[in-house]
Amino acid sequence: MAIGIFGLIPSSSPDELRKILDKLSTKWGDVVEDFESLEVKPMKGAMTNEVFMVSWPRKETKFGSRKLLVRIYGEGVDVFFNRDDEIRTFEFVARQGHGPTLLGRFPGGRVEEFIHARTLSATDLRDPNISGLVALSRGKFMRLLDFVQDYEYASYNPIAYDIANHFCEMVAKYHSDTPHILDYTLYPGEEERRRYICNYLTYSGEEPREEDIEQLLDETEKYTLASHLFWGLWGIISGYVNKIEFDYVEYSRQRFKQYWLRKPQLLSFYPSS
Asked: One of this protein's Pfam families, by short name (predicted)?
């Protein structure tokens, strides 16, 4: 069943959203002016916000429609990050040619450029060719900004933490019927981790030294513990404040379980209890 675009947002925001749509309609000139004709489709995989693809019909139907993305902020998630910082990161990255353009903001959400692309699946991330491209792109992007997977959580992080978080994400299937279930048998083995790190280190154009590879391999594994702690705490808090349909508590339990399982193996100088 179709969802009206104004039915997505808080009751205090329709006027602000209408102003954004009016501005875009004038800018583009080829879309219909009847905002009620916009088709809205929920997108899967979001755990912090609700995300919708909006199809805006053109006046000449043979040209199809324009696409927008409307992001509705999750309830209570501002406890994790500063929205103004997030928007600054969003706009900075967009100016560098990475990611979508911000088209407008309204209380409780924003409108973004829709990127016609396919989200990489867990299987895609294991493909050596795709993984190599991801590593090279991450290396180039690191020169701009380090960031865990979303603009909301962007920050200046150690390289090893960012890569560790990437490896941890490879055990998840967020677009499945059980997005909260993590399969740690899918965690990349040493050969796969080494290949990714080698590809990452080549972004400078020089052949990486073996000692640099070994050091980053070791640091990355240790930083998986920080990733488990961060997202474990995120799951606990999200379970209380966010109304998105996702089993945050079970997700959190699995992350903490991995933390306690891996800690004595990775930090042998710590007691196991």
From this structure: Choline_kinase
